[in-house]
């Protein structure tokens, strides 16, 4: 775990998808009482720590322009981890926002370990259905693997588009209390969410300060997994899955501020060291 940025990013992306999205019939991802989504951007930087020790860092760049969005994550190993494994990760997603609905279009993931590509996923979606998907490395054929069928590629959400929640600040609690269908290129699973609490965060250097909603989650594998594997059993019983969502008021969305993921090696914590949103009109006023 400590030697693999991909493992960290993939777990983080899985949790993000699980905690931020809801896909009803037809694959359109909807949220209760959305606020008006406005053109602008969010620039955020995150530290990844395993048992309190820094293992990686990544930047999230989100842009909204005329209801179309692009999201990009770039990360790499850091601290002690970088001394034993030089890892990088790139995730991209794009799509459209239609009122309460987030409609993913394209998703891409690419990771390297010590200069060699370790994983790659390319997905194209339309209304929650996978139009095309290519994932490397492929899942090895195993007798105990639950088959991944065509039906499992409908009414799903990709791990990155789900991180953006169109919602008013007053309705933050509604982002929890739902069940999420996720496909990451290899496996199909559900994550059952529940509301835990609200909290206050204090940012520095112009970063967000204010309330966040804290969601918990449980992992439910559906297809593509091997039920006999200890890692699958661990995740099914994992009670250390949590995400904090912060409002980006000038954009009318909620975005992840902090995540906690229990792993076999300990607790992986991902928290924002920088979290700055800016509407297009605000940016123009500064120029």
UniProtKB/TrEMBL annotation:
Keywords: Signal. It holds the Pfam family DUF3108. InterPro entries: DUF3108 (IPR021457). Residues 1-32 form the signal peptide. The keyword Signal applies. This is DUF3108 domain-containing protein.
């Amino acid at each position: 775990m400590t030697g693999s940025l991909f493992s960290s990013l993939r777990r983080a992306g899985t949790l993000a998808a699980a905690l931020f999205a809801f896909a009803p019939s037809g694959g359109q991802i909807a949220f209760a009482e959305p606020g008006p989504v406005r053109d602008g951007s969010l620039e955020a930087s995150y530290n990844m720590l395993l048992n309190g020790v820094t293992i990686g860092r990544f930047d999230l760049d989100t842009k909204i322009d005329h209801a179309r969005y692009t999201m990009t994550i770039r990360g790499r190993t850091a601290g002690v981890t970088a001394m034993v494994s030089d890892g990088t990760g790139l995730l991209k997603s794009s799509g459209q926002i239609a009122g309460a609905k987030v409609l993913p279009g394209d998703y891409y993931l690419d990771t390297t370990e010590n200069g060699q590509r370790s994983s790659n996923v390319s997905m194209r979606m339309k209304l929650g259905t996978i139009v095309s998907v290519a994932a490397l490395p492929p899942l090895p054929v195993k007798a105990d693997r639950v088959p991944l069928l065509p039906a499992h590629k409908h009414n799903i959400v990709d791990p990155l588009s789900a991180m953006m929640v169109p919602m008013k600040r007053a309705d933050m609690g509604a982002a929890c209390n739902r069940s999420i269908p996720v496909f990451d290129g290899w496996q199909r699973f559900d994550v059952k969410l529940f509301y835990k609490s609200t909290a206050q965060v204090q940012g520095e250097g112009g970063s967000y300060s204010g309330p966040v909603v804290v969601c918990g989650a449980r992992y439910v594998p559906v297809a593509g997994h091997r039920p006999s594997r200890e890692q699958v059993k661990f995740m099914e019983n994992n009670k250390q899955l949590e995400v904090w969502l912060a409002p980006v008021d000038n954009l009318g969305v909620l975005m992840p501020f902090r995540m906690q993921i229990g792993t076999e090696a300990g607790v992986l914590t991902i928290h924002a060291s920088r979290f700055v949103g800016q509407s297009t009109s605000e940016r123009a006023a500064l120029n």
